[in-house]
Amino acid sequence: MSYCGASIGFPLGSSVTGTRLATEGTGVECREPDRPMLTIRDAQLDAFEQAARTAFENEMVAHSLAFTPRLCEVLGEAQLRVALRQAIRDAEEYGFTYRGPIRLFIELTFLLGSDFPTDPQYPAFGEILRASDSQIQRAEAIHDAFQQYHDRVSGPAAQNVHKALNDLLVLARTPLTFTNGLVDVLLREMTRIFPQKAAYVGEDALRAIIEQALVQAAEYRFETERQQGLLAVLKFGFGHGCTDDPLYPWISRTLKDPRIVGPAARAARLEKKAIVWLEHVVARNTERAPR
Question: What is the pTM of this model?
Fold first, then answer.
């Protein structure tokens, strides 16, 4: 995590204008001694702010490529920018306007999913974001909370995450039997695939995302237990908002593609795309693993 140092104290627009100037009327008048009056129009202020936002977005593109190169490689720059713009807007809705807190929010978006503030798997982050403390205090608290999560769940060099992705790929390729009921089987498999995360978030959170998946599965007319379980596992792995997350556009595109006829074909296509995505990530992890 890169949230540290003096950079947390500079607002988003500081590279150009410091902070957004609150103005009324046609513009802001500025006069220096013995110089003609200078009028800065609203359109000029808007242009300055847009330039600052573009520069910050470019900075976050470069940061994201260094922070999570595998995901950025899969996304491509155009989709990465879509995801970054949404993350910046979401951060601003929680009152994050400084570079450091926004960057932290973006990093958590990559790590936990774009809807992490409302994900039942990570209630602590949402509670901190909605607190009345300053953005700096909240950012520091979120950073500390994530460090605890990282230490308990991810493991050194994210080895627990890599193993979970491998096991998730195996599960995706394996027919499941649901003799004990869908919810119980999903709880068992989630715990088996990623025991560290399952222990950290707790059974109530896992049941909550399973329930969300079942409700959404009904909207897509997914009737078989495997089809319903697919949505639950995706939410467990990629966040509860993964079905409309710009970080995983292949999920929403498949669910909404009008060319796919029937729920069975849609679920089969979604499962196939999930396997392809996992195969790519697992292969990249294997290539880059220390030998």
Answer: 0.80
How many of the other CB atoms lie within 10 Å of CB of 137?
12
Query: Is 208 a residue whose pLDDT tops 90?
Result: yes
Model pLDDT for residues 105-163, shown as the tens digit of each residue: 999 999 999 999 999 999 999 999 999 999 999 999 999 999 999 999 998 888 999 99
* Res 18 pLDDT > 90: no
Question: Which contacts (CB < 8 Å, 24+ apart) does range 56-62 have?
Answer: 56/12, 56/15, 56/88, 56/99, 56/102, 57/81, 57/84, 57/85, 57/88, 60/84, 60/88, 60/103, 60/106
| Owner of token pair 């491998």 | 166
CA angle 158, 161, 162 (to 5 degrees): 90
What residues contact 183, with CB distance under 8 A and at least 6 apart?
A: 207, 210
Q: How confident is the model at residue 50 (pLDDT cuts 50, 70, 90)?
A: confident
* Tokens linked to 55: 């520069």
In the chain, the percentage of residues whose pLDDT exceeds 90 is 66
Token pair recorded at residue 172: 């995706």
Whether residue 99 contacts residue 6, with contact meaning beta carbons closer than 8 Å, is answered with no
Of 10, 9, 48, 13, nearest to 28 (Cα)?
A: 48
DSSP code string of 122-183? -HHHHHHHTSSS-HHHHHHHHHHHHHHHIIIII-GGGHHHHHHHHHHHHHHTS----TT-HH
pLDDT higher than 70, residue 21: no
H/E element holding 5?
Answer: none
Residue 211 backbone phi and psi in degrees, to 5: -65, -45
Q: How does DSSP classify residue 6?
A: G
- Mapped to the 3 state alphabet, what secondary structure does 239-263 carry? CCCHHHCCCCHHHHHHHHCCCCCCH
What are the structure tokens assigned to 124, written together?
């602590």
CA distance 78 to 38: 39
